[in-house]
Amino acid sequence: MTALPAHWLDKDRRRLRVRESAIGDRIYELLTAVCALVVPALVVAIAVAVFAAAWPAFAKLGLSIVTSSDWDVAGGHFGAAPALFGTLVSSAVALVIATPLAIGVAIFLSEFSPAWLRQPVGFLVDLLAAIPSVVYGLWGIFVLIPLLREHVMPFLRDTLHLGSTPFFRGPAYGPSMLAAGVILAIMALPYISAVSREVLMAVPRSQREAALALGATRWEMIRDAVIPYARSGIIGGIMLGLGRALGETMAVTMVIGNRPEISASLLAPGYTMASLIANEFSEATNDLHLSALMAVGAILFIVTLIVNAVARWLVWSVGRSRAK
Amino acid sequence: MRTARSRHLVSGAMIGLTYLAAVLATLPLLLILAHLLAKGASSLSFAFFTHMPKPVGEPGGGMANAIVGTLVLIGIASAIGLPIGIGAGLYLAEKKSSPFASSVRFLSDVLNGLPSIVIGISAWEFLVRPVGHFSALAGGVALGSMMIPLVTRTTEEMLLVVPTSLREAALALGYPRWRTSLSVVLRTALAGIVTGALVAVARIAGETAPLLFTAFGNQFWSTSVREPIAALPLQIFTYAISAYDEWHRQAWAGALVLISIVLVISLAARFATRSRFGAPVD
Known about the structure:
The complex is a heterodimer. By secondary structure, chain A is mostly helical. Chain A has 12 helices and 2 strands, in the order αααββααααααααα. Chain A has a single domain (64-323), classed as MetI-like (MetI-like fold, Orthogonal Bundle). Chain B has helices at residues 4-43, 46-50, 64-94, 99-113, 116-128, 136-161, 164-172, 177-188, 190-205, 232-240, 245-272.
């Protein structure tokens, strides 16, 4: 059905409009606008609360809050460098593990899956996003960590001789950067694969047919005709997964070991910004300690904001080029 | 020059790898569910739902207070998140391209992407610090603010699917704009909006980080919104990181109950509309 020209409607409405409906419209519009206004108000309120509370720490400690490794509550030193390091490294490990898997699943689902498998596999992968992070943490403590300690870590270090590199050196404790990375990988996977699947599905059929008609094999079609088309959307999906991993709190706190030291080895325990807040906030002893934790929250706020904004922009730019 | 044969071999191998990726990606979920069932079911009993937690060393006990606490928190969060989210969604669907609508859309993505622990500390700043004690209300508000962007975006998406002709027909019949929106457009999209709401509830039901410094947890029975309240995720966290086998068993049982709540809500969402479910809302 074609849409009526807008001015017809307006004229009709003007004729039919009765006083009370005009008032009703006013009230309705006002109410929904107020609801819409809550969203920006919340973002501003959160930003103001966190940054205002963090200000004393920024003013007193300056840059040392991100450059110093000395976190000594009694002595008034608050250097969160190990936590910043841990947040970045655990998220990087997560992406290294999750990205190939997520893109693999997305390609499987959009290109190769038999029709009867598509729904259930997609459903199971999506379901990963519905599992509460505390359940991931519980599973991490009692299943993943023993598995890593007994089998995976010795295998990586000794059997593959990766122990000769600094990244897999030292004793296998169990709670470690590696454990956090693996848990985060599982948690980020559904986000990356959902976005990748959507952008892959949006690649026009003609793109695939043209590649096949030129004699490409099915893999060459994916590599040369489909993925380049969907690239920025997939990168956007990866960034979304990164945003999730950076801010994840509970599961990481439960498996990373919470030791504020910078170590190159993934087998060693570490710390993240989110777990630092989770562990110390309710026991903050003095105002500066509290403010320093708020400052860590503020840094986390900014980092995730930037990552998410870039992700949205990338996904959005794919949508726009598709619409053209 | 690579032969056709080798190119086809490579192609077959790569396709095989995507099958492998699909297996590996579904494996963690199946493992987690299997462990939850194996370890949780054996510790689960009727008493778990009706009894209070016991002190360390005493066997038995349950999480009655935490289960009720979680329901109270979900209730408060939904009372805040659903009306505001749906209202904002209605607004966005109607003012598609105004600059204010675009910025609301962007900021709701920002809010959705914020780490939940950051939402927790700001709820603490506003609702706990001034009154000097933790409360269920603060926890509910923190969870509610996480629901708002989820509900807003799904509501808007569902409303945009409603054909314009339907809206025009209602307007042409002399319906005022607000009645057209509420009783024609909103009603048509209702199933999808219910799905979005359920997905949002499922998402926040298992949240722990925003509750650490707001609802805080409570060893005793409390349903007051002004007092600290127990919550299933908090209780699981406390028990999981403790050193007692009995508490570990309780944690598994609690996790099984929590995941059952989340999955039941998620499945309900899937049946409300048969489109997408639990998927990361973007």
